From TrEMBL:
Cofactor details (free text): Binds 1 zinc ion per subunit.
GO cellular component: cytoplasm; extracellular space; plasma membrane
Source domain of life: Eukaryota
Domain Peptidase M1 membrane alanine aminopeptidase: 299-507
GO BP terms in the entry: peptide catabolic process; proteolysis
Matching InterPro entries: ERAP1-like_C_dom, M1_APN-typ, Peptidase_M1, Peptidase_M1_aminopeptidases, Peptidase_M1_dom, Peptidase_M4/M1_CTD_sf
Pfam families: ERAP1_C (PF11838), Peptidase_M1 (PF01433)
GO molecular function, one term: zinc ion binding
Site positions for Transition state stabilizer: 443
Active-site residues, Swiss-Prot/TrEMBL: 358
Classification via PANTHER family: AMINOPEPTIDASE, PROTEASE M1 ZINC METALLOPROTEASE
Source organism per UniProt: Meganyctiphanes norvegica
Name of the protein in its database record: Aminopeptidase
Annotated positions binding Zn(2+): 357, 361, 380
Length: 765
């Protein structure tokens, strides 16, 4: 471009053919399903008047010296030349098979592009092989099946041609176009690809006997225009004739192409990595979160990722919140961009969490990919765990460690207490099962498992184990046992070595979690474990224990503190059994599961609950906020299961009139208003409203309506204000209505963190 800015003549056109991206992508399966797909993506930048066919890779010898094909069996060529002016694509797929070492019974071409026109023409070098083409346009599949058994070493090729209209209403999958705001009055087009699970493979090949590797070669054509960016999730290289360029491995189920007139915001960070953020010109991006989160991931995991440029793009209509394409992460606009003056604290935190989540996927999911979907939690669980760590690194004052409890552990415990739950690692055979695994169990229970693992081996050993795991399986596939093996190697050098696989199999290979029941008498503690179910109805159990002989039992890292030393954490193991141990005879209470980092619930006898409740009333700060939140969560949930009296959580929550921590109030209000809903048609509802009002009124007077204070205090204020209005506090309703009318009739701005409360109240009352 610098050599030939005007684009005149053939030489200048070669100069504009300036960027090439290489990627090798993979996907593992078993038993006749696709194993791996190697891919090379190439971007062509050509002028508007120049015919794209002149740059056909098969005709132009400029790239002949690039030797990146590791296998000769399969050579598919996928062409996706979008015409953004006409809003359509006329593309093709060329398939060549040569020197096949396995007998081929069928070849399946799956199109995710809603093709309206299909053409097949085939050329056979072996006339004895006759294929029959069956086209199913509804399912977007074309089956090529040999009438006879295919012979070895067959050579043949075929072309699959399709037409695609890019303008679809409410379509945000596959290759699609949408609009974004270029200026306050001008809109422009954007082209993007989203290839989810069942549509990610534009073509795949079913070889029944042998695993094999295939290579996809795709190209995207673009017309030159100022600020026009064409991106593919692969490293960038300049084309130099005869230059021998290597390749990088990428996973197959995330391939993305992006084309738009966007503004680029480069941000340099350490470890030789650059973050480039692409967004519509009229928007503002605060990229410091991405910078800090990526830097933290580099320091924590080690710089194993090969991506030197991390592109991040804000897209107007994007089905998912974000997609972790390696090197080219795509986001919904609201998941990447925010303005502190116009974005609530809750939404700012969401941006930080989503960005950290996608960056963590560059290691867990991209650098190392699970062998099969049964271990999806290795991707999503780790990313969900790291999202709190990364966001906490970006904003240390947000206390993301305690928020991990209310955002990950508590929701996962709630779902996993159902009989319909499933193990984290579970067998998968059909696409519908795969999609169902993208749930709270894989994400939040998976994250909770890593949090619990860190709690009993320590952060330093966890970091060493994860670095070893990433180093051993980089650019490769792994399964849960591989992770346990790496961690066991690290802990073996410790004074107290642990068999991580034996411990964690009880948590990942069977559904549910334990309820630990604790009694204390004269310094003697007894703890028993049983599976906790929210409703033990007599229905068919679909889950089975890891050991049929002993039933549902776990290796539990039981942590506790006492009233004698409430800041000193002790630990004892419950290895598939109950446990007894002694404490100081002066101990009046023991609080189990410190910080609610263990994935289990705890109940106490009447003596234990009474002393813990009294401690909260006398001095609730003797326990950490996460411990206070866990007591509230356990007490309300145990009532729902019929394990304790309803008076326990009601007595326990009386201390809230002195509570100032967000995590405690968030947990309590969630449960209290759930009870209020359950009492909708009962006389006791009035009493429940009065009780909640008694609790929130003092805090309402403390927080007020001024949108000031720390991030957590702003989160707390919005929840307290909404709760106070929901229970009918006249002063709160009056103030909210006043602010609403000032905004509506006098155009007075409402502070961003109380805006939702005011709007809801104004409409409601």
């Amino acid at each position: 471009m610098a050599l030939h800015p005007k684009g005149n003549g053939y030489t200048s056109n070669l100069g504009k053919l300036r960027k090439i991206n290489f990627a090798i992508v993979r996907l593992s399966t078993d038993h006749g399903l696709p194993i791996m797909v190697y891919a090379r993506y190439v971007i062509y930048l050509v002028p508007k008047t120049f015919p794209p066919d002149a740059f056909s890779i098969r005709q132009n010898g400029i790239l002949c010296g690039l030797k990146v094909r590791p296998f000769r069996n399969v050579s598919p060529l996928i062409n996706l030349p979008p015409n953004m002016k006409r809003s359509n694509v006329l593309g093709s797929v060329d398939l060549r098979l040569a020197e096949a070492n396995a007998e081929i019974s069928s070849v399946v071409i799956t199109s995710s592009l809603t093709a309206a026109l299909f053409k097949f023409y085939m050329k056979y070098w072996n006339p004895e092989s006759i294929f029959k083409a069956l086209l199913f346009s509804v399912k977007k599949k074309a089956f090529l099946r040999d009438k006879k058994s295919c012979q070895k070493c067959i050579n043949y090729s075929k072309r699959f041609i399709y037409f695609l209209d890019l303008i679809f209403k409410n379509n945000t999958k596959s290759l699609y176009m949408s609009e974004f705001q270029l200026t306050s009055i001008t809109k422009r087009l954007i082209m993007n690809t989203v290839l989810p699970l069942k549509t990610s493979q534009v073509s795949y090949y079913n070889f029944q006997k042998n695993r094999f590797f295939a290579k996809i070669f795709s190209s995207v054509y673009s017309l030159f225009e100022p600020f026009r960016h064409v991106l593919v999730n692969a490293p960038d290289y300049n084309i130099v004739p005869g230059l021998n360029i290597g390749y990088n491995l990428l996973i197959t189920y995330f391939s993305v192409r992006f084309m738009a007139v966007y503004k680029k915001i480069p941000k340099n960070i350490s470890n030789f990595v650059t973050i480039d953020i692409y967004r519509p010109p009229i928007f503002i991006v605060f990229g410091y979160i991405a910078l800090r989160a990526r830097t933290y991931c580099n320091l924590f995991f080690g710089p194993y990722g090969p991506v030197r440029v991390q592109n991040m793009i804000a897209i107007p209509n994007f089905g998912a919140g974000a997609m972790e394409n390696w090197g080219l992460i795509t986001y919904r606009e609201t998941a990447l961009m925010f303005d502190p003056e116009h974005t609530s604290s809750r939404d700012q935190q969401r941006v930080a969490v989503v960005v950290a989540h996608e960056l963590a996927h560059q290691w867990f999911g991209n650098l190392v990919t699970m062998k099969w979907w049964s271990d999806l939690w290795l991707n999503e669980g780790f990313a969900s765990y790291m999202e709190n760590r990364g966001a906490g690194e970006a904003e240390p004052g947000w206390d993301m460690g305690d928020q991990f409890v209310i955002e990950k552990v508590q929701p996962a415990l709630e779902l996993d207490a159902l009989q319909a739950s499933h193990p984290i690692s579970t067998n998968v055979t059909v696409p519908e099962q795969i999609e169902s695994l993208f749930d709270t169990i894989s994400y939040k229970k998976g994250a909770s498992m890593i949090g619990m693992l860190e709690s009993f081996i320590g952060r330093a050993l966890l970091q060493k184990g994860l670095r070893l795991y990433l180093s051993e399986y980089r650019y490769n596939n792994a399964e849960t046992n591989d992770l346990w093996g790496s961690l066991t190697k690290i802990t073996a050098s410790n004074d107290n070595p642990l068999d991580i696989k034996v411990i964690m199999d009880t948590w990942t290979l069977q559904a549910g979690f334990p309820l630990v029941f604790v009694t204390l008498e004269d310094g003697h503690v007894t703890a028993t474990q049983n599976r906790f179910l929210i409703c033990e109805e007599n229905i068919t159990e679909t889950n089975v224990p890891l050991n049929d002989t002993i039933g549902f039992k776990w290796h539990i890292p039981l942590t506790y503190v006492t009233n004698i030393e409430p800041q000193k954490e002790e630990k004892i193991w419950m290895n598939l059994t109950n446990v007894e141990f002694n404490v100081d005879p002066r101990v009046e209470w023991v609080k189990m599961n410190v910080g609610q980092l263990g994935f289990y619930r705890v109940s106490y006898d009447q003596h234990g609950w009474s002393h813990l409740i009294q401690q909260l009333k006398d001095n609730h700060t003797a326990l950490k906020p996460s411990d206070r939140a866990s007591l509230i969560d356990d007490a309300f949930t145990l009532v729902k299961a019929g394990s304790i009296s309803a008076t326990v959580p009601l007595d326990l929550t009386q201390y809230l009139m002195e509570e100032t921590k967000y995590v405690c109030w968030h947990t309590a209000l969630r449960h209290l208003f759930e009870w209020l809903q359950l009492l909708f048609n009962y006389p006791a509802r009035t009493l429940m409203i009065k009780y909640i009002h008694t609790l929130v009124r003092p805090m309402y007077l403390k927080t007020g309506w001024e949108d000031t204070g720390s991030h957590l205090y702003k989160l707390l204020r919005s929840e307290i204000l909404m709760a106070t209005i929901d229970v009918g506090d006249e002063d709160a309703i009056k103030e909210a209505k006043s602010l609403f009318y000032e905004w509506r009739f006098n155009n007075k701005t409402i502070s961003v963190n109380i805006r939702a409360v005011v709007y809801k109240t104004g409409v409601r009352f």
